[in-house]
Design a protein that fits this description.
This protein is of the alpha+beta class. Helices cover 35% and strands 19% of the residues. It has helices at 6-16, 28-38, 42-48, 51-57, 97-116, 120-137, 153-156, 169-173, 193-223, 227-257, 262-267; strands at 270-272, 301-302, 304-307, 311-321, 324-330, 333-336, 342-345, 353-360, 369-376, 379-387, 393-398, 404-411, 421-429.
Length: 430
């Protein structure tokens, strides 16, 4: 009998110990990272030097290889988790935004600090880890919280005879394809690690939602044995991931060099929280515990409200004009119900003011009466009562030092079905 060499046996046993339920993308990690690196400015590629190629061919796999690549395993560990070799939260986003933010901030700071110290090799390895985190979070095989092998989802989408008994995680993510974002210009996410990691979290959320839109089509294509369709949907997820990774890498290199374009800095001076998920939306969806019953049975929405709880309509408020009241449609804003506040984490010491227009949806909320309240860290910053036909109230709040910003709407009238509360253009300002 031919014996297996001990070194090979060790590698095989180590690989068998990997928490397979957490792995995602596999080889496509390389394609995604290389696509992101390709669009970085020349000065950033020169900064990485010979480490650039290694980042795209090796370092972006470090979190998957912590048992077999022990020299680099330390770059995928965290001081606050001593003794843990394999950190599952580097592969699967947790429900709490604060913990995901902490992970992104930790590795971004490590990379920036190493670059400032001239330790390009260390920085590239930390950058490889943060690339892997973003790519795994945006993988179609990591989209269903708590069902990474899709055993529950397959009860809703019964497999074909050929696919019966097969775990879907691997087939959903596996593939050999090239990713290109050649026309994409990486975006600066912040001028400090605190600001940049916070904005990166919300970019990652975009990647997660994009990946979720591909999961069911990929499964259906696998059932139909349509390899071309599988690749098409995988590429949709991978392309978005590459753009998010490019933004992160670009920002890390800008932060380390203190090099920021004037236009980029100006763009960062304000940000709308309208598209950002509040912390109540665990795993980026609203649990039923955060549904409201007034003005209809439902949850908060961005950019629209639901007429009668059924039909999406644009947000519209009455404003005071010089010749009387005028109605205006707002693309940016939130519609909320009564008694279910929305809360956002804010980066430390970045934004000074919060502005928003609060009122009732013109035409739907004419008989409503709502108290709108802005809170910072649980303390009331400003509050007002608006009647249905009143013009919207303009809030401007001092939020220096505020870590948690909250918007609350409370019924103060007799017709709860008319309390169509709208927060238009909710803006954080430096």
């Amino acid at each position: 009998m031919k014996l297996i060499p001990s070194t090979v046996l060790f590698i095989l046993m180590s690989f068998a110990l990997l928490p397979r339920e957490s792995l995602a993308w596999g080889e496509p990690h390389l394609a995604i990272t290389k696509a992101a690196l390709a669009v970085l400015p020349d000065w950033q590629k020169q900064t990485l030097g010979t480490e650039l190629e290694k980042l795209g061919s090796n370092y972006c796999l470090i979190p998957d290889n912590v048992y077999t690549d022990k020299d680099n395993a330390k770059y995928a560990t965290m001081d606050r988790h001593p003794g843990e070799v394999y950190l599952k939260k580097l592969h699967l986003p947790v429900a709490e935004q604060a913990e995901n933010l902490d992970t992104l901030r930790y590795f971004m700071d490590k990379a920036v600090t190493a670059l400032k110290a001239g330790q390009v090799g260390d920085a590239a390895r930390y950058m490889g880890t943060i690339c892997h985190v973003m790519e795994d979070f945006g993988s179609p095989s990591h989209t269903v919280p708590g069902d990474n092998m899709f055993t529950l989802l397959q009860q809703f989408l019964p497999p074909t005879e050929v696919m019966k008994g097969k775990l879907m995680h691997g087939p959903i993510e596996n593939g050999t394809f090239a990713v290109s974002i050649a026309d994409y210009q990486p975006q600066l996410l912040g001028v400090t690690v605190e600001e940049a990691s916070w904005r990166l979290l919300h970019r990652v959320h975009e990647g997660i939602l994009n990946a979720r839109s591909t999961t069911v089509p990929i499964i259906q294509s696998l059932y139909a044995d349509d390899a071309e369709a599988v690749t098409t949907y995988q590429l949709k997820a991978a392309t978005m991931d590459a753009k998010v990774v490019a933004d992160a890498l670009h920002t890390i290199l800008c932060l380390s060099a203190g090099k920021f374009e004037t236009v980029e800095q100006h763009t960062l001076r304000t940000v709308s929280i309208s598209p950002f998920w509040p912390i109540e939306a665990l795993h980026l969806y609203y649990p039923q515990t955060h549904f409201f019953s007034s003005p209809y049975w439902g949850h908060a929405r961005s950019g629209v409200t639901l007429e009668g709880g059924l039909k999406e309509v644009p947000l519209k408020l009455r404003l005071q004009g010089k010749d009387g009241l005028v109605e205006k449609v707002f693309p940016q804003g939130l519609s909320t119900g009564m008694g279910k506040p929305l809360t956002w984490h804010l980066p430390k010491e970045i934004y000074q003011r919060f502005t928003v227009l609060a009122g009732l949806q013109a035409g739907l909320g004419d008989k409503g009466r709502v108290e709108f309240t802005v809170l910072g860290d649980g303390k009331v910053l400003a509050t007002t009562i608006v009647n249905g036909t009143d013009p919207a109230h303009a809030f401007e709040c001092d939020i220096k030092g505020v870590a948690l910003l909250q918007l609350a709407a409370t019924s103060r009238g007799l017709d709860p079905k008319s309390n169509y509360a709208v927060w238009a253009e909710p803006m954080l300002r430096k």
